[in-house]
Amino acid sequence: MRILIMAGEASGDAYGAALARKLREIEPALELDLAGLGGASMEKAGVRLLYNIADMSSVGFAEALKNVGIMRRVLLRVTNILDDERPNCIVLIDFPGFNMRVAEIASRMDIPVVYFFAPTAWAWGKGRAKKIAETVTKVASVFPFEEKVYKEAGADVVFVGHPLIDMVDRSLSRDQARSELGIPPEQAFVGLLPGSRKQEITALLPVMVGAAGRLAREVRSLTFGLALAPTIPREEVEDLLGRIPGSRTVPLRILEGATYKCMAAADALIVASGTATLEAAMFGTPMVIVYKTSTSTWALGRLLVKIPHIGLPNILAGEEIVPELLQNEATVDRISTEVLKFLEEPGYREDTRKALLDVASKLGAPGAIERTARLILDTARL
């Protein structure tokens, strides 16, 4: 059985790797040929990479144009592979700008498609949901509210739950995380998570470090940890830090391979909008969500996006339970002011913690990866 897994970002690479391992675990006697687009995690899980996502990931409409030549070449290569090898099933993971095109091509070839982390039709409107319904065999829904949107559009959708329930070790306590990171129990500690893409890091790290510097001047013995995503080389971050005015005076250290420890240990976090906000919610760690992109991307997004919040914890809660500072609002002053509230107001911090843990409880029962893997195998046998 031949299955193609298509992931275009760091989180998708992690989910694709988890699916690859689970597919082999469920059917150990089955001769599985797993190939696709991904990164180091998928390759380590035994997926034959057709292209490495490190050269493809981008953020936003305008930024994606920088990689349009690469995208076209990879799309042509994938089209030829589909035509030559005729896989039993294609698994698409997020990355809608590319994967929706793959779904259209596969549909014309009558190749079954499972979309895991399908495009956010609940945010962008019903047009996307109808497009998916026309081209995708099965939608593996990770959020309870998106199941309804896709069903109304005519898609064959199954709510599988969110894989973070399986992937995040929530047994990691604050004390244990601090012990492993060498942070004293009584010391104030704030984590910085500027994203997993180069464009995000470039846009967000300067303002995050600026806010950290201001907080360090106001809160005695406050320290900071920068959780480095596996897709970002340490040297690039160190180079960028060296060019940020005042960064050398900030008590900041880079943490590699310790994102969850950083989240569990922190009194508060400054986090780029995305999957990391849900991961942090699972630890109940208060956060300020920040986001910056190009002016053209922001303007187009404001016209198209149909929801009041962009932070996943706030979307799931149906209200703003953690601050969102977007585009021009993501300033040193605003970020440091919001973080300071968490550090100085224990009641506010505790209320936020409880609200975040409530959000995490809405992500479904454990077993999302297994349910999705079984859905893939069933679809491949159609």
Provide a descriptive summary of the structure in words:
By secondary structure, the protein is an alpha/beta fold. The chain has two domains: 2-162 and 365-380, Glycogen Phosphorylase B (Rossmann fold), CATH 3.40.50; 174-363, Rossmann fold (3-Layer(aba) Sandwich). The chain is 51% helix and 16% strand. It contains 19 helices and 13 strands. It has helices at residues 10-26, 40-44, 61-64, 68-85, 96-108, 121-124, 126-135, 144-152, 164-167, 174-181, 198-218, 234-242, 259-265, 275-283, 295-304, 312-317, 332-344, 346-360, 368-380; strands at residues 2-7, 33-38, 48-52, 89-93, 113-116, 138-141, 157-159, 189-193, 223-228, 252-256, 268-272, 287-291, 324-326. It has a seven-stranded parallel beta sheet with strand order 3-2-1-4-5-6-7, sandwiched between helices. A six-stranded parallel beta sheet has the order 10-9-8-11-12-13, sandwiched between helices. Helix 1 links the parallel strand 1 (2-7) and strand 2 (33-38). Helix 4 (68-85) packs parallel to helix 5, helix 10 (174-181) packs across helix 13 (259-265) and helix 14 (275-283) crosses helix 18. The longest helix is centred in the middle third of the chain and has 21 residues, at 198-218. It is globular and about 65 Å long. The relative contact order is 0.13. The mean pLDDT is 90.
